[in-house]
Amino acid sequence: MADEKKTEDKKVEETKAAETKVEKTEATEAKAEETKSEDKAEAKATVAKAEETKSEDKAEAKADEAAPADGTAHGEQAPGVAETPEVAAAQADANLKNAGQKAEEQARKGGRSNSRGGGRGGRDNRGGGRGRGRGRDNRQDDGEELIEKLVHINRVSKTVKGGKRFGFAAIVVVGDGNGRAGFGSGKAREVPEAINKATAAAKKNMIRVPLKDGRTLHHDGKGHFGAGKVVVRSAPAGTGIIAGGPMRAVFESLGVADVVTKSNGTANPFNMIRATFEALKEQTSPRSVAQRRGKKVADLLGRGGMDKAEAEATADAVTE
């Protein structure tokens, strides 16, 4: 009997424990459901609030677009606000200042592009290109219009520890197209700077060459410099400039229209240019010879085989 009672008591305790456990599980599940419901409600409230805020922002933006803050249309002056003379004058000064700055900038850009032109011939700026006077660049220098021709660019390199350093040597011919011309050379690490140096040197070393009828030389001549030898000869009208390479640039900038030339020896443009200018320095005119000898131009021409009338007519036509 005692064992049966113990067994029944144990069953009763187990049943009570199972019921208690079931009750606790149900309570936990109910609490979880309640918490989940509360979270969903809070999420819905947050979404609703965000939608409401968004709609309010849209409404404010539309209102701002429809009616500006000053109550006037875009680009219109607010009523009752008059522009004073001081404000108008200040605005006009500012506009003039801006226009002047823009004009200066455009002029600076134009001068830079002109200085970079000037007939830099066949190759690129880095590769010893030979301009050969392929460009005509007119500039103002002290109120004088000059013709600048880039004859040659030579690239040299120096090998150093870190690599190679490149340098450029340029030779430029400058003339006014009316009997004055000069040449100069310049060296620099950059091509534009070398050209500027050569141009400045050429302008300082210009010489006057007398021309016959403003188109050709008065007489033949020879020039020599180093291994370069050149011969220049006057030519009748219509001959043109028969010259090649650097010599053509010299006569084009000088203003010679008819000439025949020949270069012997070196083809180095530096020596050819110098030899050409040595030949041009020896040029004289009948007027200068007559003045030096104390005679008339007609007397000198008459001794050359002309009759008196023709000599006097030719002397009257001589301008220099």
Structural features, described:
This protein is α+β, with helices and mostly antiparallel strands and about 325 residues long. Helix content is about 50%, strand content about 20%. The protein contains eight helices and nine strands. The strands form two sheets. The protein has a five-stranded antiparallel beta sheet. The longest helix has about 60 residues, at about 1-65. It is elongated. The relative contact order is 0.07.
Task: Give a short summary of the structure.
This protein is 49% helix and 21% strand. It is α+β, with helices and mostly antiparallel strands and 320 residues long. Among the domains are: 137-208, Double Stranded RNA Binding Domain (2-Layer Sandwich), CATH 3.30.160.20; 286-320, no CATH class.
Topology summary:
Layout: H1 2-66, H2 85-116, E1 137-141, E2 144-160, E3 163-175, E4 180-188, H3 191-204, E5 207-208, E6 221-225, E7 228-234, E8 241-242, H4 246-254, E9 259-265, H5 269-281, H6 286-293, H7 297-302, H8 308-317
Q: Notable features of this structure?
A:
8 helices, 9 strands, 320 residues, alpha+beta, five-stranded antiparallel beta sheet, elongated, Double Stranded RNA Binding Domain
- Report the β-strand fraction as a percent range: 15-25%
The total count of helices amounts to 8
Mean pLDDT across residues: 76
Question: In which order are the strands of the major sheet placed?
Answer: 1-2-3-4-5
For the secondary structure, the number of strands is: 9
**What is the CATH fold-level name of the domain at 137-208?**
Double Stranded RNA Binding Domain
Q: What is the element string, with H for helices and E for strands?
A: HHEEEEHEEEEHEHHHH
Q: Can you name the CATH architecture of the domain at 137-208?
A: 2-Layer Sandwich
Shape: elongated
CATH class of the domain at 137-208, please?
A: Alpha Beta
Q: What share of the residues lie within helices?
A: 40-55%
Low-confidence stretches: 68-82, 111-134, 136-141
